[in-house]
Write a structure and sequence with these properties.
Shape: globular
Bound molecules: 5-O-phosphono-beta-D-ribofuranosylamine
Order of helices and strands: EHEHEHEHEHEEHE
Distance between the termini: 23 Å
Number of helices: 6
Radius of gyration: 16 Å
Structural class: alpha/beta
Number of strands: 8
């Protein structure tokens, strides 16, 4: 069975949907949830779902990214994942770390890449007057938010939307897109999955 490790930084809502989908559809098994924040709410959720957890606080490492990555790599390698899923993981990974998992590391980003890599994606879409927003699951490469696109969910911008209201609607679609895209990735499918608002999966 394909082994999946998931990296989180916060509440882990995407992680929860991935674990639930693996449990329900048995296309893979979650072997670790790891976080750069020992206080991340998602760690308790993972424990409650009987998924092994690990946490390495990135703050003591300061600017020593390689040092932090060497530390969080230890529990990841012990778990022996086939695939690494970044899910609300807010640390930028070094090319060395990415190379170790390239071709088997996924991330979900809250914009329709290649538009708006980086942060504050919803506000940037609103400021640009975009009529559509959404989220993207992509393979992680050394360039931030730039790897091959595996799936996208398109979310219409509504009049009066704020970054918060748009983020909330996009998050619902993230929770649909990521599990489906991971299942297809495990099955060896690479053609991008495109979900419209409410379209059947
Ligand atoms: C989500 O908007 C996701 O797109 C971004 O982090 C946010 C929180 O994710 N990467 P989660 O609830 O921790 O999964």
């Amino acid at each position: 069975m394909t082994r999946v490790a998931i990296l989180i930084s916060g509440g882990g809502s995407n992680m929860v949907r991935l674990v639930e989908a693996m449990a329900a559809r048995r296309f893979a098994t979650p072997v670790l949830v790891a976080s750069n924040d020992p206080a991340a709410g998602g760690l308790a959720k993972a424990r409650a779902m009987d998924v092994p957890v690990a946490a390495v606080d990135h703050r003591p490492f300061g600017r020593d990214r390689a040092g932090f990555e060497a530390a969080i790599l230890r529990p990841i390698l012990v778990a022996e994942p086939d695939i690494l899923c970044l899910a609300g993981f807010m640390r930028v990974l070094t090319p060395d770390f990415v190379r170790r998992f390239e071709g088997r590391m996924l991330n979900i980003h809250p914009s329709l890449l290649p538009k708006y890599p980086g942060l504050h994606t919803h506000q940037r879409a609103l400021d640009a007057g975009d009529t559509q927003a959404g989220c993207t699951v992509h393979e992680v490469t050394a360039e931030l938010d730039a790897g091959p696109i595996l799936g996208q969910a398109i979310v219409p911008v509504q009049p009066g939307d704020t970054a918060e209201s748009l983020a909330a609607r996009v998050l619902v679609e993230e929770h649909r897109l990521y599990p489906e895209t991971l299942a297809r990735f495990v099955a060896g499918q690479r053609a991008p999955l495109i979900l419209g608002q409410g379209a059947p999966v």
